[in-house]
Amino acid sequence: MRRYNEYYAKMKVHKDSLGEVESKWSFMTELHEKRDLVKKLLTVKEELTQDSRNPEGNQMKQVQEDITKLKDQIITVKESNIEKTHFLEEEKNTHEKLREEIEIKIYYKTKNREQERREALFCSSSRKMVETDEAHVPCQL
């Protein structure tokens, strides 16, 4: 039994010394880091699976809170869209009224100009008639 214990003691010393040498190699340090990362990820995965099975879990509550926040945001955006469309409709109506008023003013201006031209033509024709009579009376309408 003594030889057996001595053999395992030598093997343990050999493994420890080999482990020391291996730990200095860069790929071995990367390997150990990646193993640690895998262990952490596995524990996180296990926690998430347990949490997803539990309806009272933290993740489920967080997801529900996110959903309610998104719903609130959607509602506020819809309300602002409704307000903007209402405002745009009012602006459209005012533009239509202004356009009609401008068209009416333009119509009356052109009508007045035509009437002034007619009067001017009438006056010029009446002046010719007055000049022939040698009365030189200006045209007044």
Strand content: under 5%
Distance between the termini: 145 Å
- SS elements, strand count: 0
> Could you estimate the helical fraction of the residues in percent?
over 70%
Question: What count of helical segments does DSSP give?
Answer: 3
Mean pLDDT: 83
Global structural class = mainly alpha
Characterise this structure.
The protein has 141 residues and is mostly helical. Helices cover 89% and strands 0% of the residues. It is built from 3 helices and no strands. The radius of gyration is 49 Å and the shape is rod-shaped.
List the helices and strands and how they pair.
Blueprint: H1 2-23, H2 26-53, H3 58-133
In summary, what is this structure?
By secondary structure, the protein is mostly helical. It is 89% helix and 0% strand.
Structural descriptors:
141 residues; 3 helices; mainly alpha
